Amino acid sequence: MTEEINTQEMGEKIVKVLKTIYDPEIPVDIYELGLIYDVMVNTDYDVKILMTLTTPNCPVAESLPREVEERVKSLDTVKDCEVEITFDPPWTQDLMSEEARLELGLL
């Protein structure tokens, strides 16, 4: 009998972790900034995250995806994590949550 994966619960745990990672230039976490486009979990507990950066030449273009992978992999239930960076669609301030805009004084 295979164990049923509660993807919603796992997704919530992953989002909690993502909310602890901040863009070094903006005092808002990467999730609220809208940098996370998609989080996929398969039955092997492998996680794939599709994310973007605020700009293609972002100073943390190398380290941020690695940090996301490491933090997500630190969850007990996650076997592996792969982060894919995309600039399609490009990030804009419209992708930020209301909370992030409020934090940055954009509302």
- The residue-averaged pLDDT reads 91
Distance between termini?
51 Å
Strand arrangement within the widest β-sheet reads 1-2-3
The helix count comes to 3
What is the CATH architecture descriptor? 2-Layer Sandwich
Beta-strand portion reads 15-25%
Helix content: 25-40%
Biggest sheet overview: 3 strands, mixed
Sketch the topology as an H/E string, one letter per element.
Answer: HEEHEH
Shape: globular
CATH topology: GMP Synthetase, Chain A, domain 3
Find the CATH superfamily. Fe-S cluster assembly (FSCA)
Low-pLDDT stretches are: none
**What is the CATH domain class?**
Alpha Beta
Q: Estimate nothing, just give the exact number of structural domains.
A: 1
| Rg over C-alpha atoms, rounded to the nearest angstrom | 14 Å
- The assigned structural class equals alpha+beta
Number of strands: 3
Q: What's the layout of helices and strands?
A:
Layout: H1 7-18, E1 36-41, E2 46-51, H2 63-73, E3 80-85, H3 98-103
Parallel strand pairs: 2-3
Antiparallel strand pairs: 1-2
Short descriptors:
alpha+beta; three-stranded mixed beta sheet; 107 residues; 3 strands; GMP Synthetase, Chain A, domain 3; 3 helices; 17% strand; single chain; globular
Brief account:
With 107 residues, this protein is α+β, with helices and mostly antiparallel strands. The chain contains three helices and three strands, in the order αββαβα. The N and C termini lie far apart (51 Å).
Walkthrough of the structure:
- There is one protein chain.
- This protein has 107 residues and is α+β, with helices and mostly antiparallel strands.
- The chain has one domain (7-98): GMP Synthetase, Chain A, domain 3 (2-Layer Sandwich), CATH 3.30.300.130.
- Helix content is 27%, strand content 17%.
- The protein has three helices and three strands.
- The protein has a three-stranded mixed β-sheet with strand order 1-2-3, covered by helices on one side.
- Strand 2, helix 2 (63-73) and strand 3 form a beta-alpha-beta unit.
